[in-house]
Amino acid sequence: MEDDPQFEYTESELHALADKLIAEEERVEFSEPDPNVTEQATHLEDKWLMCPLCTEAWDSESVYPMVRCPKCQEKLSNPLHTKDENK
């Protein structure tokens, strides 16, 4: 299997593939509001959010209605999401 060229990826190709898979998983998991999630991230300024549970702050590029805190991994409502976005 190691000699087959279809299994040969450069490091940058592997990173690109990983980024694509992570983005797809994020889209699937966070694209719909979760009615079981009661906590909302706190909007600080610009695109900065803060977790109300562990006070971790992060710069979020998420366009989805849900986000995950990078420290405690809690799923939160995204205060930066607008319902009229078609992304």
Plain-language structure description:
The protein is α+β, with helices and mostly antiparallel strands. It contains one helix and five strands. The chain has a three-stranded antiparallel sheet with strand order 1-2-3, with no helix packed on it. The chain has a two-stranded antiparallel ribbon with strand order 4-5. The longest helix is centred in the first third of the chain and has 20 residues, at 11-30. The N and C termini lie far apart (39 Å).
Question: What's the topology here?
Answer:
Blueprint: H1 11-30, E1 42-45, E2 48-50, E3 57-59, E4 66-68, E5 75-77
Antiparallel strand pairs: 1-2, 2-3, 4-5
Helix content: 10-25%
Q: Write down the overall geometry.
A: elongated
Unreliable residue stretches: none
Radius of gyration: 17 Å
Order of helices and strands: HEEEEE
Mean pLDDT: 84
Number of strands: 5
Tell me the β content.
15-25%
The number of distinct helices, counting runs of at least 4 residues, comes to 1
Distance between the termini: 39 Å
Kindly name the structural category. Answer: alpha+beta
Q: Major beta sheet, specifics?
A: 3 strands, antiparallel
Strand arrangement within the widest β-sheet reads 1-2-3
Structure at a glance:
With 87 residues, the chain is α+β, with helices and mostly antiparallel strands. The protein is 23% helix and 18% strand.
What features would you highlight for this structure?
two-stranded antiparallel sheet; 87 residues; three-stranded antiparallel β-sheet; alpha+beta
